[in-house]
C-alpha cells in the first residue's frame, strides 16, 4: 500500500504545480527595483553646502510614476506604481548617505513611495522615465535653491491626498526612435593631435565605440562615421549622418593647443557669425541636392541656397544649443572637469549641416597633462561615456516632448 500512497502524493504535487503557475499568470507582477543599478549621486565636492543631486531608479520594467517636493521637513518624494523593493533597505542603495535620511515602502493600494529628506531647499530640474529596454530607469535631477525660490507642494498631508497625476511610460513608435551618428574625428593618414605617443584619432575612436554600446543599451540607434582607423572626409561625415536619418550628430575630438591655453571638456556649436561665408562655401563645394534633406537646390543660385540653409538653421541651431546644455549639465554632475567657457561657437565643418542638430565635444586637450591623464584613465572614461549617454537620452526625451507639444 506504500506505493499507492506515494503515487497519490505524486498526483497531488503534479496537479498543484500547474495551479500555482496559473495563479501567478493571472496576477501581473509589478516592477522590481534593481538595487545594484540604482544610485543617488551629487555633483562636485562636499563643502558643507547642498549640492545638485541626481537620483536614478532602475526598474525591471517600466511603470507609472510621479516625483515632487514637500516641506517641513524638505523632502523629495518619488512614487512608482506597484514597485517591489524586495528585501532591500534604503541604506543598501549607492549614495543613500548623501541625504539626511532615505526610506521607502508601500503606499496606498497600488503604489510604492520613496522619500529622500534633503539638506536644504531644492527644485526639480529634470524628471523623466527612460522606458526602453533593457532596463527602464527613472531619472530625477534636483538643484539647491534659495528659500524664496523653493516651491514645494503645500504640505505633506496635501501630497498624500492630492497627488500629481502619474506619468505613464510613453509608448515609443518607430518614428520617435532616436538615431544618433557618432563622429570620431580624424583617422587613417590624419592622426589628429599627438602627445606622449598617443594619437587623437585612436583615443576618440575608443570613446566612440564605448559610447555606441552605452547608447544601444538605452534603445538608441547608433551609426559611426568610422569604426576603424580610416580617413573619412569632412563632407562625407555629414553625408553619412544625413543618409542615416540622424536626429543628432556628435563629433568627438581631443585636440592639442599651446600649453596653458585650454583644458577641460568643451562643447562647440555652429557659430552664427560665420554663417554667411560658410554657407556660400558649402553651396559651392557640395552637390546642391545634398545640402538639405527634402529640398532640391539644383538650379538655384548661391543666394537662395544660403537663405534656405539659414531658414533650416532657425530650427536646428536652438536644438544644437539645447543639446550642448544637456551635455555640460550631465558632465558636471559626473564630476568631469569643464573648460572655463564650456559651450563655445566655432565654424567647424562637421557643425555646418543646416538640417541636423550637431555638436562637437572636445573630451579634453591631450596637450594638457591633467586632461591627457584623464582621457587615458578607464574609470574617467566610464564616467564620461555614461554622462554622454545619459545626456543624449535626456535630450532625446526632451525632443519627443517638444514634438508632442508642437503637434497639439
What would you say this structure looks like, in words?
The chain has two domains: 35-161, Immunoglobulin-like (Sandwich); 174-407, Zn-dependent exopeptidases (Aminopeptidase, 3-Layer(aba) Sandwich). It is 34% helix and 23% strand. It has eight helices and 16 strands. It has a six-stranded mixed β-sheet with strand order 12-9-13-16-14-15, sandwiched between helices. A four-stranded antiparallel β-sheet has the order 1-2-8-7, with helices on one face. A four-stranded antiparallel β-sheet has the order 3-4-6-5, with no helix packed on it. The longest helix has 32 residues, at 302-333. It is globular, with a radius of gyration of 26 Å. The model is unreliable at 1-27, 155-163 and 274-313 (pLDDT under 50).
Characteristic key phrases:
408 residues; disordered N terminus; Immunoglobulin-like; Aminopeptidase; four-stranded antiparallel beta sheet; alpha/beta; 23% strand
Structural class: alpha/beta
CATH architecture of the largest domain: 3-Layer(aba) Sandwich
The helix/strand order is HEEEEEEEEHEEEHEHEEHHEEHH
Low-confidence stretches: 1-27, 155-163, 274-313
Q: What strand line-up does the widest sheet have?
A: 12-9-13-16-14-15
How are the elements arranged and paired?
Elements: H1 2-26, E1 39-42, E2 53-58, E3 65-70, E4 75-81, E5 101-107, E6 111-117, E7 122-130, E8 137-144, H2 156-161, E9 179-184, E10 194-195, E11 198-199, H3 200-217, E12 221-224, H4 234-243, E13 248-253, E14 265-270, H5 275-285, H6 302-333, E15 338-346, E16 358-362, H7 369-375, H8 378-407
Parallel strand pairs: 9-12, 9-13, 13-16, 14-15
Antiparallel strand pairs: 1-2, 2-8, 3-4, 4-6, 5-6, 7-8, 10-11, 14-16
Helix pairs in contact: 3-8, 5-6, 6-8
Amino acid at each position: 500500500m506504500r506505493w499507492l500512497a506515494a503515487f497519490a502524493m505524486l498526483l497531488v504535487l503534479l496537479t498543484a504545480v500547474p495551479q500555482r503557475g496559473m495563479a501567478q499568470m493571472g496576477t501581473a507582477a509589478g516592477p522590481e527595483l534593481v538595487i545594484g543599478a540604482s544610485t543617488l549621486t551629487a555633483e562636485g565636492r562636499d563643502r558643507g553646502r547642498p549640492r545638485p543631486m541626481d537620483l536614478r531608479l532602475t526598474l525591471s520594467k517600466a511603470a507609472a510614476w510621479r516625483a515632487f517636493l514637500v516641506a517641513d521637513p524638505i523632502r523629495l518624494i518619488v512614487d512608482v506604481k506597484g514597485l517591489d523593493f524586495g528585501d532591500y533597505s534604503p541604506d543598501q542603495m549607492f549614495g543613500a548617505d548623501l541625504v539626511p535620511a532615505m526610506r521607502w515602502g508601500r503606499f496606498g493600494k497600488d503604489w510604492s513611495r520613496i522619500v529622500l529628506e534633503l539638506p536644504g531647499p531644492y527644485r526639480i530640474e529634470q524628471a523623466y522615465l527612460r522606458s526602453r529596454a533593457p532596463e527602464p530607469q527613472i531619472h530625477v535631477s534636483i538643484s539647491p535653491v534659495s528659500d524664496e525660490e523653493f516651491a514645494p507642494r503645500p504640505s505633506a498631508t496635501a501630497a498624500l491626498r492630492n497627488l500629481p497625476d502619474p506619468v505613464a511610460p510613453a509608448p515609443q513608435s518607430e518614428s520617435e526612435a532616436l538615431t544618433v551618428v557618432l563622429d570620431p574625428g580624424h583617422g587613417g593618414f590624419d592622426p589628429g593631435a599627438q602627445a606622449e605617443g598617443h594619437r587623437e584619432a585612436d583615443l576618440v575612436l575608443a570613446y566612440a565605440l564605448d559610447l555606441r554600446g552605452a547608447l544601444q543599451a538605452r534603445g538608441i540607434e547608433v551609426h559611426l562615421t568610422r569604426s576603424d582607423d580610416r580617413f573619412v572626409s569632412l563632407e562625407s561625415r555629414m553625408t553619412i549622418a544625413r543618409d542615416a536619418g540622424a536626429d543628432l550628430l556628435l563629433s568627438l575630438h581631443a585636440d592639442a593647443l599651446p600649453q596653458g591655453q585650454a583644458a577641460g571638456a568643451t562643447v562647440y556649436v555652429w557659430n552664427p557669425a560665420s554663417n554667411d561665408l560658410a554657407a556660400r562655401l558649402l553651396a559651392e563645394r557640395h552637390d546642391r541636392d545634398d545640402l538639405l534633406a527634402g529640398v532640391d537646390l539644383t538650379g538655384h543660385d548661391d543666394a537662395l541656397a544660403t537663405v534656405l540653409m539659414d531658414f533650416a538653421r532657425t530650427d536646428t541651431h536652438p536644438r544644437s544649443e539645447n543639446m550642448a546644455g544637456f551635455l555640460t549639465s550631465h558632465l558636471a554632475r559626473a564630476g568631469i572637469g569643464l573648460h572655463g567657457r564650456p559651450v563655445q561657437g566655432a565654424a567647424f565643418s562637421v557643425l555646418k549641416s543646416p538640417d541636423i542638430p550637431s555638436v562637437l565635444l572636445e573630451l579634453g586637450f591631450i596637450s594638457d597633462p591633467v586632461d591627457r591623464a584623464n582621457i587615458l584613465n578607464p574609470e574617467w572614461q566610464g564616467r564620461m561615456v555614461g554622462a554622454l549617454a545619459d545626456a543624449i537620452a535626456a535630450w532625446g526625451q526632451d525632443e519627443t516632448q517638444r514634438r508632442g507639444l508642437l503637434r497639439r
